[in-house]
Amino acid sequence: MALYPPSPAPPVAGTRKNEKLIFAPSPDTPLATAAAQAAIAARAAAHTAKAVAGDVSVSGTSSGMSTPVTPGRAGQFLQHEIHGGLRRRDLDPASPIAQFHAWFAEAKAVGGIAHPETCTLATASLPSGRVSARMVYLKELDRQGFVLYSNFGTSQKGSDLFGDEEHPPNSWASLTFWWESLERQVRVEGRASRLPAEESQVYFDTRVRGSRIGAWASQQSSVLVPSPEKEGDDGRLQLESWVAEAEAKFGSSKEDGIENGGDDQQIPVPSFWGGLRIVPERVEFWQGRQNRLHDRFVYDRVHSEGGGEEKEEWTVKRLSP
Ligand SMILES: Cc1cc2nc3c(=O)[nH]c(=O)nc-3n(C[C@H](O)[C@H](O)[C@H](O)COP(=O)(O)O)c2cc1C
Predict the structure, then answer these.
(1) What is the pLDDT along the chain (321 residues), one digit of tens a residue?
(2) According to the CATH classification, is domain 79-198+273-319 in 2.30.110.10?
(3) For residues 124 and 131, what is the distance between their CA atoms, to the nearest angstrom?
(4) Is 282:301 a contact under the CB 8 Å cutoff?
(5) Distance (Å, rounded) from C-alpha 106 to C-alpha 97?
(6) Considering 4, 121, 128, 320, which has the largest number of Cβ atoms within 10 A of its Cβ?
(7) Is 132:160 a contact under the CB 8 Å cutoff?
(8) What are the domain boundaries of the chain?
(9) For residue 183, how far is its CA from the centre of ligand 1 (angstroms)?
């Protein structure tokens, strides 16, 4: 007997462009009455029927609803109602970095947010302007900005930020954090630049040996080619061969007789890998409130005219939700 029964098969995805496959998925807050649910479900079904008949104009979206069962009311952000929301006087008046530090400490302390350092990094390729976004971990915060670690030799973010033969560099980058149990979002926009190798080395040394070898081995985001000699290989073998090469370069931990992977061994940080610091130009703090009337405050860096050392100055403005 299987320990965990298999989940029911997902519904077959619709093939029509505007057929709604997911619609108002908030089962935790169902509509007040069965009649209200039925009415919305009927409207959704009618929309789908029209779509299937090719009767509805499509505005380029692929979301849709093939089985618009019982739609829920979209959830409410209520946590902060009892605290009166976020006010200007709650914010650090001088620095969004200090404000971020305070919110991050709360996100760590509150429980229920397993990895508050998880965020989305967005970059844009030039000259097309095409944007790409991916999850990363914030690893450091300092007075200058937000630091994460990655491969900049072969990844999309590396090409977007630092350019290559076909793309000019575009150092603008954005980070977005979402801390659900606090109902808080933080958005960061700024210019990104690489940390010097010595600084990256300090973080690199904290990683377990396997991850340091992995950083050397992986040509991040490049296509892995299946081996013609090994039936059934889908490309994973190529990655494993690169790991073996990196192991050979630095000496196998097994040869050292160190069972835990020889974590003490010094491995230099690869030149194509390291820290990226995003120096913010704009940081927004978003606190969820009832009825979508959220509190939003945005810090914008002020660039003063004239020579001399630039003093750090920010404006703080409240934004409409
Ligand atoms: C939760 C999570 C955290 C991640 N953290 C990192 C990270 O800190 N650095 C990194 O290079 N990739 C990280 N990744 C992988 C990236 O999302 C992405 O696959 C990779 O960086 C290649 O992206 P790119 O080619 O678009 O630049 C993480 C993925 C997840 C799901």
Answers:
(1) 444 555 555 556 566 777 777 777 765 666 667 777 777 777 777 766 776 676 544 333 333 344 445 566 677 777 767 667 999 999 999 999 999 999 999 999 998 999 999 999 999 999 999 999 999 999 999 999 999 999 999 999 999 999 999 999 999 999 999 999 999 999 999 999 999 999 999 999 999 999 999 999 999 999 999 999 999 999 999 999 999 999 999 976 555 544 445 667 899 999 999 999 999 999 999 999 999 999 999 999 999 876 667 789 999 999 999
(2) yes
(3) 4
(4) yes
(5) 14
(6) 121
(7) yes
(8) 14-75, 79-198+273-319
(9) 24
Residue 31 tokens, joined: 């509509």
Cα-to-chain-centroid distance, residue 67: 30
Q: Whose CA is nearest to atom 6 of ligand 1?
A: 136
Phi/psi region, residue 277 (left: phi>0; alpha: psi -120 to 50; beta: rest), is beta
- Residue that is written with structure tokens 């978003």 in the block: 286
Give the tokens for residue 308. Answer: 């001399």
pTM of the predicted model, to two decimals? 0.84
For residue 119, the CA-to-ligand 1 centroid distance in Å is 10
Q: Which residues line ligand 1 (CB under 6 A)?
A: 118, 132, 134-137, 148-151, 155-157, 220-221
